[in-house]
Structure formats: C-alpha cells, structure tokens
Write a structure and sequence with these properties.
single chain; alpha/beta; Rossmann fold; 2 domains
Length: 329
C-alpha cells in the first residue's frame, strides 16, 4: 500500500550572525547550511497495517508524513501510496487519504461542527446515504452528538480532536496519517480516540501510520513500530522485538508461601522485599524467565508469581538517551 524508497529531504537554512559585525556580514552576504531532515528512509507498509512512527523532536517524523501526504516534495527518492505519487497526483490522491495533525484543525473555526462536516461532504462528493451512515457511525463511536452544533472555536481540545478524526474519515479513505492525535488530551479522551482508531483499522481495514510521543498510543494500538532519528530509519519491526532487544531488565514478582528472612537467587538481584512478596530483577539476555522460576522454586516454597516486562516508555527512552540503535546493539 505504501512504498518508500531511499527518501531524502534537505532544507537550506539561513545562517544568521549576531552582533554589530555580524549584522554587517548579514547585509553583505547570505550564508546557508543544509539540514538533512530525512536521509535515505526506506520502508513498506502493507494494506490494513497500523504502524507507529516514532522519534524524538526534530527526528524527521513530520517531514516524512508531509511528503507522504503530498504537502512536501522530496529532494530525492521515491514514494508511492497505492497507485499514486503524492505530490504529482495530489488532486486525485487526497480524495483517498485522511490526515489529522494534532496541533491543527481541518474544520472551519467559526462554523458549528455539523456545518464543517456538511461542507466536507460536498468537497469530497460523498453520496448522501454514505455520508449519513458514516456520520451516524462516528457520532456513536466518538460521542459527537453533544457538540455537533457548537462552533469549532468553542470546543475543548478533546472534542476538537474527535471532530477532526470524524472529518478525516468521512469519505472512507484507504490510508490515514495521524500526527500526534492524542497530544494534550486527558486520559478519558485519549482512550476514546485510541478505541476509535483501533476499531476503524480492524473493521474497515484502513491503513494507518501514527506518529506520536505518547507511547501509550503505541502500546495500545501498534504491533509494528519504526524509529527514526536524525533523519535515518533506525528500527523497523514488531513492537515485541523492540522490547526484547532493548527492554533491559525484567522483573519476577514472587509471593512466597512462608516467610524467609533473606532471599537470594543466582542470576537475579532482589530489588524489594515486603513481607512474603519479593521482587527480583534479571537480564533477559543472561537468564530466561522459566530458568529463574526453576531456581526460585528449587529453594523456596511459592504461592504465586508473575513476570513483569519493562514499560514501553522506559524502553524507547533508553534507545533515545543511550543511542542503542546507533551502536548496533
């Protein structure tokens, strides 16, 4: 569905000199530096996939999305979404995609939500029956009824995001690009939007690329993730593989059948002991969970136990901070 091959995007950025002499230099000559916002990115997204596209600020995520939607023209490389080249077939192409940018709205600021949706019906030439069906469906899933007749400027951020999602999907796009769709939302609003995204992907087979800094979105929605940094794609694979490679230490929570004054197991360290509950931390590379459980059960009587994986947020933070992917870990 989406094919990206050796994609590059460069920007020329004006170099400004400060101070009195710098101001004179700025008048006499113009100096620029080249920024490689996207640097040789290649990936393929199949029909119906829901992929998380991650990276720190300035990594190249939004620049990639803007090229995929046809807003920007690449410096070099190839992009094909379905049978379209986004920036060449833009008029026909946009009728088949949906886009949500978390900080911007596609709705008319002073109009009630319903009037914006009615206008989009005519822009996309959506048949009346299909429009009514989709609107009713989205009103149910996103609970739009309470603010359909409210001007967009009077909506809360959560309400506006729900309205923007409905607007982006009214015409049944085959591909949807979501750039920070849950930014700034409270827990309840986030969960409502995540449920909606998941249902649209599963029920309609919509292909979705999701960029986000909220790793709760990724853990909840994405089985596959791509990580970009300094314009280069560093990881592309299942979320479980990312956690397995870079997740660091796991924890084994053990509820003992009786009290032991001291607990010690080879290959793991005790990080907490509260009565009969003991938390052991161990490296996934040095010891499997089953091996550790066998060692614990051979020394102590156990009532219950569970394995706890590291949080996805902690895993991705380690990748960014320690640049593990750059090291070929």
């Amino acid at each position: 569905m989406i094919r990206v091959t050796d994609l590059h995007k460069e920007f020329r950025v004006y170099r400004h000199h400060r101070g009195a002499l710098g101001s004179l230099r700025n008048l006499v000559s113009r100096e620029y530096r080249t920024v490689h916002a996207v640097d040789g990115v290649t990936f393929h997204v199949g029909r119906g996939e829901l992929v998380g596209y991650l990276g720190p600020n300035g990594a190249g995520k939004s620049t990639t999305i803007k090229m995929l939607t046809g807003i920007l023209v690449p410096t070099s490389g190839e992009v094909k979404v379905g049978s379209w080249i986004p920036w060449q077939d833009r008029t026909r192409y946009v009728a088949h995609i949906g886009v949500v940018f978390g900080q911007r709205t596609t709705l008319w600021w002073d109009l009630p939500v319903i009037e914006s949706l009615d206008l989009l019906r005519y822009i996309y030439r959506i048949p009346a029956e299909r429009y009514r069906h989709n609107l009713d469906h989205f009103c149910e899933l996103l609970e739009l009824e309470n603010f359909l007749h409210t001007p967009v400027r009077s909506l809360s951020l959560g309400q506006r995001m729900r309205a923007d999602l409905a607007a982006s999907l009214l015409h049944d796009p085959t591909v949807v690009f979501l750039d920070e769709p849950t930014i700034g939302l409270d827990v309840v609003a986030k969960e409502r939007i995540r449920t909606f995204i998941q249902q649209i992907n599963q029920d309609q087979g919509t292909t979705i690329i999701l960029t986000t800094h909220d790793l709760g979105d990724v853990a909840r929605l994405c089985q596959r993730v791509m990580i970009i940094d300094h314009g280069q794609l560093l990881f592309d694979g299942p979320l479980d593989d990312l956690v397995a490679r870079f997740g660091g230490e796991r924890e084994l929570l053990v509820d003992l059948a009786e009290h032991y004054p001291e607990v010690s197991v080879a290959g793991a360290r005790v990080v907490e002991q509260d009565g009969r509950r003991v938390t052991l931390r161990f490296s996934r590379r040095e010891l499997s969970a089953s091996e550790l459980i066998a060692r614990v059960s051979s020394r102590y009587r156990i009532r219950d136990l569970s394995v706890r994986e590291p949080e996805i947020e902690e895993t991705v933070r380690r990748i960014y901070e320690e640049r593990l992917l750059d090291q070929g870990t």
